[in-house]
C-alpha cells in the first residue's frame, strides 16, 4: 500500500479536508477515494499505469480523485483549471490519457474531446459506493505527470514515482516539523508541485488539516486567518504582494486584528519565484514572521530550504534538504570553487524519473554521472545558497559580464516611485545583450534622468538598464511567476 494512504488509517476521525464550507474526515477521504479507484478499475485488477487526466476545482473532490487514481494503479494527470482548451488538449494527447474525470463546470470546455472513442469520460459527481479489492502498488511505479511551464518549446510531462513523491513529502515534513495539529490554507493551483506536494500532501501525510480556497481573495484569506484555526501558510511572492497591498488599505482596527491573528502562526513559506526583499520586510512588519524561502522545481520537488529553527537570511535559500545532494557546477559540469557562481545540479531520490515520451530530453537534462541540471544559477556564500536567476532568462550576458537580473530588480524596487519591475536581457549586436527594465509605477510618471542618477551610486554602469518600458502589470503565468520570455518580446516589439 502507498504509505501516504496507509498513514491516513492512523487518523480516521481527524479532519483531513475543509472545502466549500464542509469538513471531511480521513475516513471519508479513504472511503471516497476507494470508490473512485473501484470505478476506474471497472472489473480490471490494476490500471497498470494508465494515465488518468482530471479537471476539477481544488478541494475534497480533487483529493479523492488523485488518491483514487493512485490506489487503482494509475498515473494521475492533474489539469490546470485556468488553462485554455488548446493547452488541456495538448496534455491529454501527449499522455495518451485513457480516462478524463471532470466536474460539470468543465464539461462544455472538454466536449470536443468526447468524439474520441478511445477516451473514457467520467463525471466527478457520479461516483457511488462500490465493492471490490484494490491492487498492491509498488513504490517504484509511476504516480504522476505534471507539465513544466514550457519556456522553450512545448511543455514537457515530468514523471514522478511514488518513491519520488514520498521522498519529497518526508524531506519537508521532517525539515519543517509538520504535526497532526497543523492546519494549512491552500490557495495554490493543484496542477503544480507547490500546491500538491508542499501543501496538500505534506498536511495529509501528517494527519493535519488542509483547507482549500479555490479562488484567490485577499479579503477572504484574511477572514480565514482571523478565525485563528490556520497556523501554516505557503504562497508565492505575488500573493504576499497582493495581501500586503490589500492590508495597507484597511482601517487601523482591522490591521491590528489581522496582525494579532498572524503572529501565532507556526510557519509561513514563500516559493516558486524569487522573493523580493521589500516584500519579505513588509510581511515581517505585518505578521511578525520572516518568510521561509525554499528552492525547488517540478522535476525534483523541493531541494534546498532555509532553516525552520535557525536564523534566515533574506535573499538566501538555505541548505539541501534530507537525502538531497547539491553542487554548483560550471558549463563543463565541473564543481566550482566556493563563492563562484554556477549551475545548481542535484542528485537524490526526490529527482524525477523521466520526461514523458521524451528520452532525448531526459538524457540531456542529466550529466553523464547522473546529476540533474536545473538550469538555475546560484552561488554558495555565507554558509548558504543564493539564487542569481534562471540561466536562460535571469542571467544577462553583456559585454563579457554575467549579470543577475534579480539583483537589479531588488535595487529598482527600493525607488519610491517603483511599485514592481521586471528586468531582462535584450539581444544587441555590440554587447551581446543590453539590460531592459519594465517598470510598474506607484505614481503617474517618473523622470528617467533622475532615475539614472539615483542608480549611479547603487549599481555599476554595466548593470544599469539601458532601455525602459512602462506597464500596468507584468506578464505572469498561473503561479504568479513573471514570464520573462513574454517581457523580452515586448522589448523586441
From TrEMBL:
Ranges for domain AMP-binding enzyme C-terminal come to 407-481
Keyword Oxidoreductase among record annotations = no
BP GO terms, sorted: fatty acid metabolic process
InterPro entries under this entry? Answer: AMP-bd_C (IPR025110), AMP-bd_C_sf (IPR045851), AMP-binding_CS (IPR020845), AMP-dep_synth/lig_dom (IPR000873), ANL_N_sf (IPR042099)
* CDD domains per record: MCS
Ligase: is it a keyword of this entry? Answer: yes
Q: Which residue ranges does the record assign to the AMP-dependent synthetase/ligase domain?
A: 6-356
Query: From the UniProt record, which GO molecular function terms apply?
Result: medium-chain fatty acid-CoA ligase activity
Q: Which family does it belong to?
A: Belongs to the ATP-dependent AMP-binding enzyme family.
**Protein name stated in the entry:** Long-chain fatty acid--CoA ligase
Please tell me the species this chain comes from: Maribacter algarum
